[in-house]
Amino acid sequence: MTVLFHMTPADNLKAIQVDGLKAQIGARSLDIDEQSKAVYLFRTLEGAEDGLGSWFGECFDEDETLSLLAVRLPFEVPVDEGLFEFIFEDDIPADWITVLTRDVDAVNDFRMFEKISGEIGQSLTVESAAGSPEP
What we know:
The chain has helices at 13-19, 27-31, 45-52, 114-119; strands spanning 2-9, 39-42, 66-73, 85-88, 97-101. By secondary structure, it is an alpha+beta fold. It has a single domain, classed as ADP-ribosylation fold (Alpha-Beta Barrel). The longest helix is centred in the middle third of the chain and has 8 residues, at 45-52. The relative contact order is 0.25. Residues 121-135 have low confidence and may be disordered.
């Protein structure tokens, strides 16, 4: 099992919690002329936080609320220190996903999720860092 991370606008959470993450060619993929449907996952919390502070964060308006998700893949993902992302070309079911926080701006340091992400394999319900319990 491997735990990876995904960020998305908070407006997408209700659909994700029902339908999971859908492999698609989304807005950011269209911007860089991606040709394959996929779900892009950060390999580490540090990679997610770095992306938010640079290229990924720049893709969104300042007033848009972004959420951080942990995705539990039921297989091992090879470690590749040179890559910050893992490209998953299938849909990801909702029961593989845990909302770590509904608002990344409410979090000072993503390292606070390290313990939670290590426990996700044992429990799929966690308290949101923003303080509201997971539905």
